[in-house]
Amino acid sequence: MGIEPMGLRESKKQETRQLISDQATRLFIENGFEATTIAEIAVAARVAKKTVTNYFARKEDLAFDHREEFVEGLARTVSGRAEGESALVALRREFLDGVERHDPVIGFSGEVFARMIADSPTLLARLREMHDQREAALAELLATETRAAPDDITPRAAAAQLGGVHRVLFQQILELTLDGWSNQRIAETVTVSAQRGFDLLTGSLADYAVK
Predict the structure, then answer these.
(1) Last residue within a domain, chosen from 63, 78, 104
(2) Which domain holds residue 29?
(3) Are residues 127 and 153 in the same domain?
(4) What's the pLDDT tens digit per position in 98-151?
(5) CA–CA separation, 180 vs 111, rounded Å?
(6) Do 105 and 158 fall into the same domain?
(7) Which of 54, 106, 186, 201 is the right S-S partner for 98, CB 3.0 to 4.6 Å?
(8) 68: Cβ–Cβ under 8 A, 6 or more apart, which residues?
(9) How many CB atoms lie within 10 A of CB 184?
(10) Residue ranges of the DNA-binding region (predicted)?
(11) What's the rounded Cα separation, in Å, for the pair 125 and 87?
């Protein structure tokens, strides 16, 4: 018997993961997150219950299948900033690009999905936790990039400000989505909000963490 190539094996794993996530989201939307069980998701995806938990350690992560990208996104953007670019400029640019793309990671999830989140205390709590994790990841990256001393509060304070703007903008996108606005209309409004929000940080962070 031949050995299955690693690329094919990984591709099958990704397909299984996506299938589980898609079926879970469908059930969450139809029945509510709180009422849906892991066993029901396993049946819908035609996999064992253990397979579901192997791919998703927490039930909430079945709904937030972009969790890793969300949590690591700000730090990744700052890490990849251009020469001479500050953390603030890089994050502003990337966020506005995301608005143009109607990127689901920054909140463009559609009204049905947004309602699923808004109706679940568990998902709202997980979302807050993800915001906190994203901010912590950014603070750690900034501390490394600026060679900050262990007792220097600057990276954490900067991350709190930068993460705070993203948190407020995500919430605005969510609220406008729940109000039934189109993605295009949301994008136009949030672009103005983003410019204002990032402008408020210019005085303190314009020259911080310049590459």
Answers:
(1) 63
(2) 6-63
(3) yes
(4) 999 999 999 999 999 999 999 999 999 999 999 999 999 999 999 999 999 999
(5) 7
(6) yes
(7) 106
(8) none
(9) 9
(10) 37-56
(11) 28
Residue ending a domain, among 14, 29, 63, is: 63
Tokens encoding 86: 């500050």
pTM above threshold 0.85: yes
CA distance 211 to 63: 36
DSSP for 132-176 reads HHHHHHHHHHHHHHTT--TT--HHHHHHHHHHHHHHHHHHHHHHH
Same domain, residue pair 50 and 72:
no
Q: Of 67, 25, 63, which is closest to residue 44 (Cα–Cα)?
A: 25
Q: In the structure, what pLDDT confidence band is assigned to residue 11 with cuts at 50, 70 and 90?
A: confident
**Which residue reads 């819908």 in tokens?**
44
Contact 99, 190 (CB under 8 A): yes
